[in-house]
Structures are given as structure tokens and as C-alpha cells.
């Protein structure tokens, strides 16, 4: 399964264009622009599984750096500041990684 089987390629492109500049990435805005906030909990879980590059059941800080590249190979890497801010917003239990429940809570309104 690919991200474009759940999200439209145009919406992904629009979300990526919005955060091209370093330190301009906002997770909530990105999720909204790419259409993720309008998806079902099961679809968001499927997206999480695609983004969980090592299939550990978590998105760790190292994987977060390459978050945008999971949507498009040509996208930029998140800055350390963006990566740490993303983790801080999503990591409700402070274990240093984002689980599927934390991801769904962050994405879905």
C-alpha cells in the first residue's frame, strides 16, 4: 500500500509545497493540507504503518527526520528543531517515540 492509495497526490504536493522552507513544517497544518484529517481512524492507522519505516510499531525521532520524504522522495529532511517539536507535540507518554494511538490523536480532530 502507498500513501497515494489513501491520500491524493495533489493534496500531498500542496502540503509539501507549504513547508519547503526549513523550519516551516507544522504537523497539524501538514495533516490538514494533505487531507489526512478527513480520513477514518483505520485509514490514519494505515498511513501510520506506511510511515513506520522499520515496522517497529512506533515512529522514532530518526524516522521523523525523513517524514516528508515518505510522502515524496524529493522532499526535504526535517530540521532538528522541527523533528524535536513534532515529537514534543505527538509523544503524549514521553517515551521518545510516536505510537499509533498518539499519531491518531494528533491527526484526527
TrEMBL record:
GO terms for molecular function: calcium ion binding. Ca(2+) 1 binds at residues 52, 54, 56, 58, 63. Residues 39-74 form the EF-hand domain. SMART domains: EFh. One of its GO terms (cellular component) is cytoplasm. Keywords: Calcium, Metal-binding, Muscle protein, Repeat. It comes from the Eukaryota. Ca(2+) 2 binds at residues 91, 93, 95, 97, 102. InterPro entries: EF-hand-dom_pair, EF_Hand_1_Ca_BS, EF_hand_dom, Parvalbumin. Belongs to the parvalbumin family. In muscle, parvalbumin is thought to be involved in relaxation after contraction. It binds two calcium ions. This is Parvalbumin.
Amino acid at each position: 500500500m502507498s500513501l497515494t492509495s489513501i491520500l491524493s497526490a495533489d493534496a500531498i504536493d500542496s502540503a509539501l509545497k507549504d513547508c519547503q522552507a526549513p523550519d516551516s513544517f507544522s504537523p497539524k497544518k501538514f495533516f490538514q493540507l494533505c487531507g489526512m484529517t478527513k480520513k477514518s481512524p483505520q485509514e490514519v492507522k494505515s498511513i501510520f504503518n506506511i510511515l513506520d519505516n522499520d515496522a517497529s510499531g512506533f515512529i522514532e525521532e530518526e524516522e521523523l527526520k525523513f517524514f516528508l520524504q515518505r510522502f515524496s522522495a524529493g522532499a526535504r529532511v526535517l530540521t532538528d528543531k522541527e523533528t524535536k517539536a513534532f515529537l514534543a507535540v505527538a509523544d503524549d507518554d514521553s517515551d521518545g517515540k510516536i505510537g499509533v494511538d498518539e499519531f491518531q490523536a494528533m491527526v484526527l480532530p
